[in-house]
C-alpha cells in the first residue's frame, strides 16, 4: 500500500491513503432497487427533499443554516379494502417524522410545522398520482436542537465542523447488473410507461441476481385496483406489462435476461391472488417504511459492495457527514473513474468537531493503479476538499441528491 501525505493546501490537510485494488470477478452478484413508491423509498425521498428545502428556507429567513437533522421517519401502513374496479381506504397511512430542528434565532421565528406539511404534500403531489392529504397523514415529532450540536453552528467558520464521527464509502462505475436494475425501475416509473400502463403503481421493487453470466430478475409491481375489472383482466394486463419489459430488455441489453413479475400471484384466488393496491404503494395496506432501509445514494442496494455507517436522507446539508461524505464519496469515485478509466472505491472518515474539509482519513482503492494514475487520484481528492464549500452549496440547491 502506498501512503501519501498531501501537502497543506489553503489550511486543508488531507490524510490520503491510496492502494491497488485487487482485480476480482465474483461468481454471484445480488442487486436490489426499491422504486419510487416503495415505503422505504418514500421515507427517504420525503426527508431528503425536506432537508434541502429547509436549508434553503433557513438561508433565506435567517441568513445561516442552523442545526437540524430530520432523518428519523416512519411510514406506518394503512388499511384498505381492495376491490376490482376500485377499493377504499379504511385507515390512512401515517407518516411520523422526528429528530431535531431550529425554529428560532434571536427574535426571528419560522413555523416548522407549516413548512413540513407544505413541502411534504407538495412533493407527494408532484411524484405520486394517488397519494394525498386524505390517505397520507402526518405526525410531526421534531423537537428543538440540542445545545451542544447547535453550538457548532455558532462557531463562525467558512466550513462547518462535522457533527458526527462516521465512515462513508462510494464507488464507480456501476456494474452491468447494478445499472440494469437501476435503469429498469426508472423505465417502469417513467411518465411514458405510466401513460401506457396507468394500472401500474409507483411501488416497484426489483431484485436482480447474477450467477456467472446468467442474470435473473424478480419484479414486484403494485397494480392499482380501480384500473382492474376482474382477475382475468389483472393477469391479462400483467402479461402486457411483462411483454413490454421483455421488449425493453431485448432492445437495451444484448444478453438473455430472465425475469418474473409478482411471483406471489395465484390464479383462481380472486383478489387474494393479485397484487393490488388502492394508491399504487404497498404502504396503503401491506408494508411500512423507514428511513435508511432503502437505496444508497446512487439508487441501488448492492449487496456485494462495502457500505458506510450512515444513511444520507434528511441530514443537515452543511455539517452532517452522513449526507456530505455519502454523496461526496460517490462524486470523487466517479471523477477518478473518468480520469483513469479504472474501477475504484473511496472511503471518507470524519471526526466530530473537525471541519468537514479536513477528514480524519481518505482511503482510495483503484484497480490496476499506476504511478501516473496515483497522481490523478491525489489531484481529484485534493480538488474536491478544496472546493467542498461549493459542493455543500450544491447540496443546498438540490444539485446533489439521492437517486
Fold and architecture overview:
The structure is a single chain. With 403 residues, this protein is an alpha+beta fold. The chain folds into three domains: 128 residues, GMP Synthetase, Chain A, domain 3, CATH 3.30.300.280; 114 residues, GMP Synthetase, Chain A, domain 3, CATH 3.30.300.10; 115 residues, S-adenosylmethionine synthetase, N-terminal domain (GMP Synthetase, Chain A, domain 3, 2-Layer Sandwich), CATH 3.30.300. Helices cover 33% and strands 27% of the residues. Strands 3, 12, 13, 14, 15 and 17 form a six-stranded mixed beta sheet that branches. The longest helix is centred in the N-terminal third of the chain and has 24 residues. The chain is flat and about 65 Å long. The N terminus is likely disordered.
- CATH top level label of the largest domain: Alpha Beta
Number of helices: 9
Strand fraction equals: 25-35%
Give the class from helix and strand content and strand pairing.
alpha+beta
Low-confidence stretches: 1-12
**E-strand count:** 19
CATH architecture of the largest domain: 2-Layer Sandwich
SSE order, one letter for each helix or strand: EEEHEEEEEEHEHEHHEEHEEEEHEEHH
CATH level-3 fold name of the largest domain: GMP Synthetase, Chain A, domain 3
Q: Give the CATH H-level superfamily of the largest domain.
A: S-adenosylmethionine synthetase, C-terminal domain
Question: What oligomeric state best describes the polypeptide chains here?
Answer: single chain
Number of domains: 3
Rg over CA atoms, rounded to whole Å, is 23 Å
Helical content (DSSP H or I, runs of 4+): 25-40%
Q: Let me know the largest β-sheet.
A: 6 strands, mixed
Distance between the termini: 33 Å
Overall geometry: flat
Provide mean pLDDT, rounded.
92
